[in-house]
Amino acid sequence: MQDLIPNRKIIHVDMDAFYASVEQMDNPLLRGKPIAVGGSENRGVVAAASYEARKFGVRSAISGALAKKNCPDLIFVTPRFERYKEISSQIQKIFHEFTDLVEPLSLDEAYLDVTVNKKGNPSATLLAQEIRKRIFDTVGLTASAGVSVNKFVAKIASDYNKPNGQKTVNPDEVVSFLEVLPIRKFHGVGKVTTEKMYQLGIFTGLDLKDKSLEFLEKNFGKSGSFYYNVVRGIHNSEVKSNRITKSVAAENTFDINLSSEIFMIEKLESIAQTLEKRLKKHQVAGKTITLKIKYSDFTQQTRSKTLPYFVSDKALILEIVSELLYQERMKNSVRLLGISISNLNTEQKQFVVVQLKFDF
């Protein structure tokens, strides 16, 4: 199966604790201290945590209350997304110094295809080192990188020597690298799937590789063929420099829970205005409007409506969202409201990938 691995040179760059590192860089008093970006000790969730906080089990997506319980000295910092976007833009410019085949995944990570690159350097490993140095010299932050023949392996490798490190998995090392990897480290295998694999006796990549395609499809449906291929180093997804936006959203978590639809409409008007700005920025419109409601007991509900025409105007969005809000009675007081628009007027572009033969 080794000869089926596409001959690409892919780098996955991942900034180290990006939001938290930006805050520590901008405020010397926070350096070396456990900090959480977002949330508070009474409510909300953590968006990012510094490495000092991670030692205590503080991580993104856990509640602020649990984070404070795990780390009593934790310092909560209000997110500054405009600042993160500003630095992310600088980092993106650095990526484009090396290649135009850059696929951002978020503000703090991206794939780069350097098979053919602007530096004329045949070594993806040396390019990754140079990229990380350019980022540090330019913005003052560290990044980690993974280098391999496809996106799947490169992403796993970027986490291998964090923080401020990198790992290269050469073509002839891909299968052996994946065989000894714990199954929970496989990108795309979440907590629920990990538990299911454990129950089926799959703990490592080698355990997964020993299972037949029929077995994996029977137990994991369409994902079965994905698992069957990636553990053999087969992942043909190319780096797409113009990822298509599938949805645009905006939401707000409130300091005080809302129990009146009148107050909710006021908040939704502000959210709709933010959404309108984002739609204009992306130059898109959509047909499907979804209202997201998170109640005070943390249960979540969505209500959607698909229109026969595309919308991006705040007034039209608010009109539909108001209709969705009054569609049925609230189950409880509300702590978060969000609006998203999908079914966008974007078209998927076609890409042609040329396979080359070379030394990695």
Give structural notes.
- The protein has 360 residues and is α+β, with helices and mostly antiparallel strands.
- It has three domains: 178 residues, Alpha-Beta Plaits; 64 residues, MutS, DNA mismatch repair protein, domain I (3-Layer(aba) Sandwich); 98 residues, DNA polymerase, Y-family, little finger domain (Dna Ligase, domain 1, 2-Layer Sandwich).
- The protein is 37% helix and 22% strand.
- It has 13 helices and twelve strands.
- Strands 5-6-1-7-8 form a five-stranded mixed β-sheet. It has a four-stranded antiparallel β-sheet with strand order 9-12-10-11, with helices on one face.
- A hairpin with a 2-residue loop joins β5 and β6.
- α10 crosses α11.
- The longest helix has 22 residues.
- The relative contact order is 0.11.
- The N terminus and C terminus are likely disordered.
- Its EC number is 2.7.7.7.
- It catalyses: DNA(n) + a 2'-deoxyribonucleoside 5'-triphosphate = DNA(n+1) + diphosphate.
**Can you tell me the CATH superfamily of the largest domain?**
Reverse transcriptase/Diguanylate cyclase domain
Report the sheet-strand fraction.
Answer: 15-25%
Mean pLDDT: 89
CATH topology group of the largest domain: Alpha-Beta Plaits
User: Helix content range of the residues, please?
Assistant: 25-40%
Radius of gyration: 23 Å
Cofactor: Mg(2+)
Domain UmuC: 10-190
Keywords: Cytoplasm, DNA damage, DNA repair, DNA replication, DNA-binding, DNA-directed DNA polymerase, Magnesium, Metal-binding, Mutator protein, Nucleotidyltransferase, Transferase
Subunit structure: Monomer.
